[in-house]
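Structural prep section.
Before we set up the soaks we want a predicted structure of the protein with aspartic acid in place, mainly to decide which crystallisation condition to try first. Input record follows.
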Amino acid sequence: MYRSHTCGELRIEHIGTKVTLAGWMQRSRDLGGMTFIDLRDRYGITQLAFNMEVNAALCEQARKLGREFVIQVEGEVIERSSKNKNIPTGEIEINVTNLVVLNAAKLPPFTIEDDTDGGDELRMQYRYLDLRRNPVLEKLRLRNRVALETRKYLDSKEFLDVETPVLIKSTPEGARDFVVPSRMNEGQFYALPQSPQTFKQLLMVSGFDRYYQIVKCFRDEDLRADRQPEFTQIDCEMAFVEQNDILEMFEGLIKHLFETVRGVKFEGAFPRMTYAEAMERYGSDKPDIRFGMEFVDLTALAQQNDFVVFNSAEAVLAINAEGCSEYTRKQLDELTEWVKRPQIGAKGLVYIKCNTDGTFKSSVDKFYSEADLKAMAERANAKPGDLLLLLSGDLAKTRKQLNELRLHLASQLGLRDPNVFKPLWVLDFPLLEWDEESGRYHAMHHPFTSPKPEDMHLIDTDPGKVRANAYDLAMNGVELGGGSIRIHDRALQSRMFDLLGFSKEEAQAQFGFLMSAFEYGAPPHGGLAFGLDRLVATMGGSESIRDYIAFPKNNSGRDTMIDAPSPLNEAQLKELGLKLN
Ligand code: ASP
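Run finished without errors. Recording the tokens verbatim:
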């Protein structure tokens, strides 16, 4: 037996007990007559005491040990003279009578404590050491709890956990595929699934009725704080359902998770908003509704004078930063520089200060009278003391830019409290999205999403206006997940492939299996998937999903610890029939 207790277990009531503990040396303090060691394992930290007078040899031995040595000790639990109220084992210590070094350790490249001196890169390179740190461990504990409670909830609702293959054929979900060459079929490739989309639909054709899987998905996209090349979804599908059945079922899941894991209770149903409304009010399909600062359309008012910038714009939109009329020149310049950065791409920023004395001050005073500015302020419901910020240009771009500014300002003003959670269903996404680059329509969600029957008449004349039975769940400005009611009719699916520019042959070659399945009795069905990494990060109050993944990749998609990706040797390439140029 390596240990009788863990390092997080012993309390005042254990005094007098003889124990054996094993763990890592977090730190040691040598006070001359006494040496103390903090012994750490996954469960906590226990203080070990060595007394020079009682056992000089043992004390000498303890003093020589370095950080992160793996040791085993025997001893008796005693009451501490100076107690540490900050840790659960802080009232006791172990009077050590025997010590065995199980394994020596090199000095770690950073300190393995809650506050570490290790930078991001170093911590990722030695992630196995970083994972010894409590704050990191806590995040993975949260993830474990969320996954466990997800299974409990879905199991209680009759969902079957079914594994689907990882070596598949491409499923278009808007990203590039990762591909895997096949040795046995030279010149041919598998694709890693962007999601199990077609498989879960086939399971509905098979009569499985309710499916779920906590599953890895792979997308070869540019990375950001909330994106990894491989990520995990809670992937679900249901047969014989309408959109509302799905929203209710999964609202139930989210409520269950927040309540059991975070102790947060949501009152009533989650609010719902159409995509069109979300874009108009927030310029985003995943609005953060923890705060107001909604968009105000000032186009008509702003275009009554001779200010060419506004007059030539498709839209002039504003947000009201309440109580910010005292912003200094410097602060306003900073905001202007911020929106002009290439990532945002605005040409400039116009402000209207609604001074507390009832006067107005604006960067475009030259073109607008006091009365004009007042009219705009009134339109925006701005009060004395408020600050209006205006962007103008192409409608879609301006919305996007103003959304960024709105979030940036709200962060600055402390309006995005990570302990406040505001879910929002966004409904009726457009079916299609025009892609400038390829000059054709793409499926906004994926090609299996059904159009709204009432919009079907537009499909030939104005396909961009057709709405889909597609929905997302947004929370705090993050898209937690999304899904749709699917097409289950072969003819309509085939029409959809046409619309997306697939030739009959291409559609047959890529999706023949799905189209034939639809000929053998496909039930109406629909589903959705949540991004587990994002969900857990949001619940943990963080914007970065990396911390919630045990072994994440960096921004260039590299795992610096195992050093991947890496080249293949000649023999491997030959076996796969591959030549590099
Ligand atoms: N497969 C979709 C996705 O990954 C989710 C769904 O439609 O169920 O976004």
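Observations: The two ends are 57 Å apart (CA to CA).
Flagged for discussion at group meeting.
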